[in-house]
Write a structure and sequence with these properties.
By secondary structure, the chain is mainly β. It contains 1 helix and 13 strands. Strand 1 and strand 2 form a beta hairpin.
Length: about 160
């Protein structure tokens, strides 16, 4: 674990996880080509449940796509989307960038997209990325680095 103090702010880091002040967390991870191609059947958990009676509420996501030589084919508008416990969508999705033939970056910022989700369906749940039902990526060999900022909410 590393701790940094700068300008009166404390930042603690443990591996890929960063704990920021005021109940905001950050996690960075990378999806391999094999993981991207399997997202329609196998979600990837990137954040375990936060604590009892709490949930992580993602609000910002950076996608950094590293083109590997073959662009992905996007079937039925497939998008890499965030979910709680691989079930309830948290929005924050990106898909079109994976069909490009150059390295690219995208930022998604949530603004009310999550209204109406029952707290009981997301409390004590981890966060995953996957693609929606009936969609998939095929071919392609690039990788996708994802950085997520989230609020920690206690109920």
């Amino acid at each position: 674990m590393s701790v940094t103090v700068s300008g009166g702010r404390i930042r603690a880091a443990l591996g890929n996880y960063v704990i920021l002040p005021s109940g905001i967390g950050q996690v960075t991870f990378e999806l391999t080509s094999a993981q991207i191609l399997a997202l329609h059947t196998t979600g990837v958990q990137y954040l375990a449940p936060i604590a009892a009676n709490a949930y992580a509420l993602p609000f910002s996501c950076d996608y950094i796509y590293y083109f590997g030589g073959v662009a992905y084919t996007r079937n039925n508008l497939a998008s890499v989307t965030h979910f709680w416990d691989n079930i309830t969508s948290a929005g924050l999705s990106a898909g079109g960038m994976l069909t490009q033939t150059v390295d690219s970056v995208s930022n998604i910022f949530s603004s009310g997209i999550l209204s109406g989700i029952a707290t009981s369906s997301i409390v004590n749940k981890g966060l995953f990325v996957r693609v929606g039902a009936g969609t998939s990526f095929t071919l392609g060999n690039g990788t996708l680095k994802i950085k997520v900022l989230y609020h920690i909410v206690t109920v």
